[in-house]
Design a protein that fits this description.
Helix content: 55-70%
Oligomer: single chain
Shape: globular
Distance between the termini: 43 Å
Length: 158
């Protein structure tokens, strides 16, 4: 499906300009203006996800170790994703973004998981024009997510 871009020219300071949007196929996530304020209503970190992981694992401290490892690997994950998108290596980009999506959801990074799913949808559609915008959002919100994880759980990353 096609991506669309538009902007608001009204000059109304309270009006949010439209930004690039993308629409996923019927089986994917419908993403309407992923850079809109709606994305920012998603929590950076949802503590319920990490609590559920703790329950599922049944080992005290294991979920915090997972969160610590997740945060410590952020630099590698974003570099791998950025490089594969820049090189238009679809297989590597899909592998990197799916890994980011799943691990983000497990640790409670709702906003980052949402953005990763949007990038995955764009890549599956072959829409590499949306990829740089989505990648920029992933980097920005990823850094915020790592900071929030470290603040919330006092993670000391090696």
């Amino acid at each position: 499906m096609a991506a669309s871009t538009s902007s608001t020219q009204s000059g109304d300071p309270g009006e949010v300009p439209a930004r690039p949007s993308l629409v996923a196929d019927g089986g994917g996530l419908p993403v309407r203006a992923v850079s809109s304020p709606a994305v920012e209503t998603l929590p950076l970190v949802d503590p319920a996800a990490l609590e559920a992981l703790t329950e599922d694992l049944g080992v005290p401290g294991m979920s915090l170790q997972f969160a610590r490892d997740y945060a410590a690997m952020w630099g590698q994950r974003q570099a791998r994703l950025r490089e594969s998108v820049q090189q238009a290596d679809l297989d590597a980009a899909l592998d990197a973004v799916i890994s980011l999506k799943v691990t983000s959801a497990m640790v409670g990074g709702s906003r980052l998981a949402y953005l990763a799913q949007a990038l995955e949808a764009a890549l599956r559609e072959g829409d590499l024009q949306q990829a740089p915008t989505l990648l920029s959002l992933i980097v920005l919100h990823g850094q915020e997510t790592m900071a929030e994880l470290q603040r919330r759980y006092d993670l000391a990353c090696p």
